Structure formats: C-alpha cells, structure tokens
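Thread: "does anyone have the structure for this chain?"

Original post by V.I.:
We have the sequence but no experimental structure in hand. Need at least a predicted one for the grant figures.
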Amino acid sequence: MKAIICPDYGPVSNLEYRDMPEPDPGKAEVVISAEAIGVNYPDGLLVQGLYQMKPETPFIPGMEAAGRIKSVGAGITSLKPGDRVVAMIDRGAYAQQVLAPADRVFALPDQMTCEDACALMCAWGTSHHALRQRAQLKKTETLLVLGAAGSTGLAAVSIGKAIGARVIAVASSDEKRSACLDAGADVALPYEGLREALKSETGGKGVDVAYDPVGGPAFEVAARAMARNGRLLVVGFASGEIPKLAVNLALLKEYSLVGVFWGSFVSHEPKAYAANNRELFAWHSSGLIKPRIDVRRPLSEAADALQRILDRGAVGKTILIP
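Reply from O.Q.:
Generated one for you, tokens below.
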C-alpha cells in the first residue's frame, strides 16, 4: 500500500510518499480501506516535533480516516468487513489501509459521506467539547470565535448556532468572513478595529464565551471583551505566539480562563466523547450542521496540504483522497 511517512522530525516538506506493508489487525483491531483522510493542524505540529506527544520515528501521521472495513481482528463482533466507518486514532491515518483500535471506530449513517465523517472527528470534536463541556454554552449567550474560517473555527460557529447562541466570527479576509456567514455566524468581523467592534456588537456588555484557537494579539482583545461570568477558551496557538493573560482582567471582570485539550478529554472521558459523537452525527443527519470541505487532494500531496493549513490558508476542512 501507499502511505505518507515521517522519517524524522522536521519540516512537513520532509514527508515521504512510499510503499509500506499492508497492516494485519491484532486482537480488538480493524483494518480500514480508506476512502477519505482528514488533515488537521496538529498533524503538522506532530511531524515537526512540536506536539504534546512525540512518537518514535519513522511513523505514519494522521488521526482520521473513513472508508470500509477490510478485515477485523479476534474478539470483534460489533464490526465486520464491508461496514462503512470512520476512525479516530493517534497516528497512522495517512495511508491507503489504516489500522485502528475497534473502540476508536464508529459506524457511519447511510447519508453521511466519508469526507464529512472525517471533518466531524478532530475539528468538530474539539469545538463541540469546547462549547459543550468546557464552556457549557447556553442558548441566548454570545459566542466570539477567533480564527473562525479554519476547520475548528467554522465548526465552533455552526455548533454555537446549533446550541442557540448568537455568534460573532472573526476572520482575516472577505472570503473567510463570507464563509463564516455561510456557516451561520450572525456577524463576521475583521481583526482590525476588533476591540471597538466587539463593544458595539455587545452593547458594551462583552461576550459570554470566547473561542480562541489562534493566540497572539487577538487573545488580548478577547481577554478585554469578556462579560461577567464569561468563559475564555484557550484552544490553540495557530498564530505561533503563546499569549500572556493580565490576570487582573479576570479579577475585575469576574470571568474564567478555561483550557481545552480534546485529546485528554477523549482519553479520560470515553463515555462523554461517545455521547458527543452521537449528538454531532444526529445534528448532521437532521441537516442542522454541514461541514465545509475546503479542498480535496491526493494522498501524495499531503505535505502541501499540511503546509497550507499551517500557513492558515485553508477555509474549512482539507481531505486527502487515497
């Protein structure tokens, strides 16, 4: 089979597209013939050695793959060859044949495409956990989404609307702001003049929840735009700059700083994670949410696809076709 290999930590341009032996499933494992593979910002961090975990090299990156089960290992009765599924794994998805633990594999509804299924895993899973468990976002509250045109940002916009919040999206270009409005945002703002714009949009009250996957200077604007009892979500640092919080702001405004680490949530709360997936799948089946697929590229172009995401050029979800 063909796969993308990270031979050693370094720039994503070092990734190699080459032949690898097809995997055999062990006990409680399955092999999936991939039809779509999701590309995520953390994949780029992982191959550069900048992510929380550092697997031994060489390895196959990638966390999401959807397709049909090719074979199953011993002890598996709930899945069988031919089933349409999506897998959420630590690594190994950038391949034509994907080995996955059976407990990280989910059956697909008939109407769900493999591409949408990949989008709903990491990006939408992160945003859903952030807004459901960490922020406990409520109807009628105001949600601010920074970096709103990326895959997690658009997911946060759509999930916020599904919950019933008023959503203010922030993105860097007219094209990206248009995508945010298409995803359901009530307002789409540029970063320039953001502080005053947020005052105007909230009548001076501030936002109840701020979703920040960007970091950098925009974080300080969000930190000053929080309402009393607000929740400022730290999701990531796509800007490359880890900001500092003037903690007197949290004291004076009486809001909370809340960390969001979706991988930890998946490991520590598997039942809640499964329930989140069920809600996302139900919303998709009812037409309440629909992931935006940005581009589709051959598996061989994984390095270029990753670089585009690292450069913050993607608008929505990037999919590799094996």
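V.I.: this helps a lot. Residues 114-134 form the longest helix (21 residues).
O.Q.: and Residues 2-108+292-321 form a domain with the Quinone Oxidoreductase; Chain A, domain 1 fold (CATH 3.90.180.10).
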